[in-house]
Specification:
Blueprint lengths: L4 E2 L4 H21 L7 H23 L4 H27 L7 H8 L9 H14 L31 H9 L2 H18 L2 H4 L4 H26 L4 H24 L17 E2 L3 H8 L2 E2 L4 H6 L6 H6 L8 H14 L6 E2 L2 H17 L8
Parallel strand pairs: 1-2, 3-4
């Protein structure tokens, strides 16, 4: 596994990080507020889990038409994405609650989607957050098949059209994880990551197999057994649910890191990124649609990615309040703060960046 170091260019970069933490901590202290979640977050969790579970129960219990059931699976996908963004995300970061058992409980909501908590922690909490937008370490910008999300990856002819077909493949995120989890855990084991974090790979594999079998039985087997729907109708609904969730999740995540103005730096031959870590996070991350209250609520504050990357231990319910502090401190120290004012602006910027990555960059034509 690569070893990356962040070395500040100037003392001002170090002072920026120190003052930023001081200013944000002062806001919480002055207002007497915990950095963890609150009643708003609990209500979000209830709504998102209900959006996911309630339509499934209706499909199982009521004799409904096929098109109605299909609509229900789309609603389930919206709820599944909401669980990922609002519930599981905060909990696995340890910011849902002051109590560890509560964080573990709500973090386990990932199992409702057939996912694996350990893999998520490694991919997201460890590698994505520590090495944002660095090829080879941040799997969120891995370029595979028809998608090229990093300017340092090889360029293929099929990438020319990715600004058109990317969103279809985004929808395959969660369904592909049902299989990818196994190879990902194997990779972490080979690299010694499971050993480093004191995880028994055999027990983790057993947990993974049990969860996925149980998930597939409930999600696919149960509807086939207890409803009048054909097996192929159930599979279409299963795919529709996952595609909806995957497309929402992937699009929201990519609009924070693969947009105009975000960088994808590479370390030098000694494995050094020549910026302070906090500065690196601002150079590789973007906020969007900060004034869209519904979006703030539904995506779990993931449109405040700058704040989330700098303070992952703070619950997303507070990002709207600390964002001006982060922005003002960044401006004071001359650090760029990348903000797309609306959802549409961020989406258009992402599409433009996809188009750029499909035609130019440091890659070499291989197809």
């Amino acid at each position: 596994m690569k070893t990356i170091k962040f070395e500040r260019l100037t003392e001002a970069e170090h002072q920026f990080g120190l003052e930023l933490r001081k200013n944000v901590n002062a806001w919480f202290k002055e207002n007497g507020i915990s950095i963890k979640g609150n009643l708003t977050l609990t209500l979000q969790a209830i709504v998102m889990i209900t959006l996911y579970v309630a339509p499934f129960i209706l499909i199982i219990l009521l004799p409904i038409k096929g098109w109605v059931a299909l609509l229900m699976t789309v609603i389930m996908g919206i709820g599944a994405a909401g669980i990922g963004m609002c519930v599981m995300h905060d909990a696995v970061h340890g910011s849902f609650s002051e109590k560890d058992w509560v964080n573990r409980l709500f973090g386990s909501s990932l199992y409702l989607l057939g996912g694996n908590v350990f893999n998520w922690k490694m991919q997201h909490n460890i590698f994505h957050h520590a090495y944002t937008n660095i090829e080879g370490l941040d799997e969120d910008i891995d370029s595979r098949g028809p998608l090229r999300l990093c300017e340092n990856a090889p360029l293929k002819k099929i990438n020319h059209y990715q600004y058109i077909h990317a969103f279809f493949f985004y929808g395959l995120l969660t369904i592909s994880k049902l299989i990818k989890d196994f190879t990902q855990l194997a990779e972490y084991n080979i690299k010694g990551i499971t050993r480093k974090y004191h995880v028994n790979p055999t027990l983790e594999y057993m947990r993974m197999v049990f969860v996925k079998i149980a998930y597939l039985f409930v999600s696919i087997g149960l509807p086939i057994i207890v409803t009048d729907f054909k097996w192929w109708q159930v599979l279409i609904g299963f795919f529709a649910m996952h595609w909806t969730a995957g497309c929402i999740l992937s699009t929201v995540f990519q609009m924070a890191h693969v947009v105009e103005g975000t960088e994808q730096p590479m370390p030098d031959k000694n494995g050094v990124i020549h910026h302070d870590w906090a500065v690196h996070e601002l150079r590789t991350t973007s906020d969007f649609a900060r004034n869209n209250h519904f979006l703030n609520w539904y995506v779990g504050g993931l449109n405040f990615q700058i704040e989330h990357h700098l303070f992952p231990n703070i619950s997303h319910v507070h990002y709207r309040n600390i964002a001006p502090i982060v922005e003002q401190t960044a401006k004071k120290f001359g650090v760029d703060y990348n903000l797309k004012p609306t959802f549409r602006a961020a989406l258009v910027s992402h599409v433009k960046r996809l188009k750029e990555l499909g035609y130019k960059g440091m890659g070499v034509h291989t197809g």
